[in-house]
Amino acid sequence: MQAERLPQQIKMVWRWMALLSGGVGLIISAGLWFAHVYWHWWLWLVVVAVGLSLLDVLVELLLVPYRYAFWRYRITDNAVVLKSGVVFQKEVAIPISRIQNVTLKAGPLLQLVGLRAVTVETAATSDQIDGVTTAVADQLRDQILLLAREARDEA
Q1: On the CB side of 85, how many CA atoms lie within 13 Å of its CA?
Q2: 42-80 pLDDT, tens per residue?
Q3: 106, 78, 108, 83: which is closest to 94 by C-alpha?
Q4: What is the C-alpha to C-alpha distance for residues 151 and 96, in angstroms, rounded to an integer?
Q5: For labelling alongside 147, which of 8, 30, 32, 102 has CA 20 to 30 A away?
Q6: CA Rg value for the chain
């Protein structure tokens, strides 16, 4: 079975997450600025915080196309396989017989673009498919749970 890609809309979610992360960094930087003004904290703390916040956003935004290009998932009769990473590649194979639960999640950003995250849980770990359409998420949940039920019945 061929590995599936995430839908294009996930790139927009990742971009918004990068901007929100940078926004939090800038809020922290503003707090450091007030600490500098009122309590005479070092100015270099503010400069470093702003620089790191902007660098974080820039790097995350630049990595979105690469993250999308290398993120794949595949459901087989024996495992759920998740692949990600450009430089640091990661491949997780979750045995179907070990799966205990499949959860569909959709925070505000995912809901905005009509996606859901699919979380596959075992007794030891929890792994996630970052975002698929609602119809695909429902199909994946049903397919994985059916395969898990069949694997338990065979054992």
Answers
A1: 8
A2: 999 999 999 999 999 999 999 999 999 999 999 999 999
A3: 78
A4: 7
A5: 8
A6: 20
**pLDDT surpasses 70 at 1:** no
DSSP 98: G
- At position 58, the amino acid (one-letter code) is L
Which parts of the chain are beta strand (E)?
4-5, 72-75, 79-84, 90-95, 101-105, 115-121, 126-133
User: pLDDT, tens digit, for every residue of 4-32?
Assistant: 999 999 999 999 999 999 999 999 999 99
Q: Coil, strand or helix: which one is 155?
A: coil
Residues 6+ apart with CB under 8 A from 93: 79, 80, 81
Neighbours of 64 (CB within 10 A): 17
DSSP result, 7-71: PTHHHHHHHHHHHHHHHHHHHHHHHHHHHHHHH---HHHHHHHHHHHHHHHHHHHHHHHHHHHH-
Q: What is the pLDDT of residue 123?
A: 93
Is there a contact between 22 and 57 (Cβ–Cβ < 8 Å)? Answer: yes
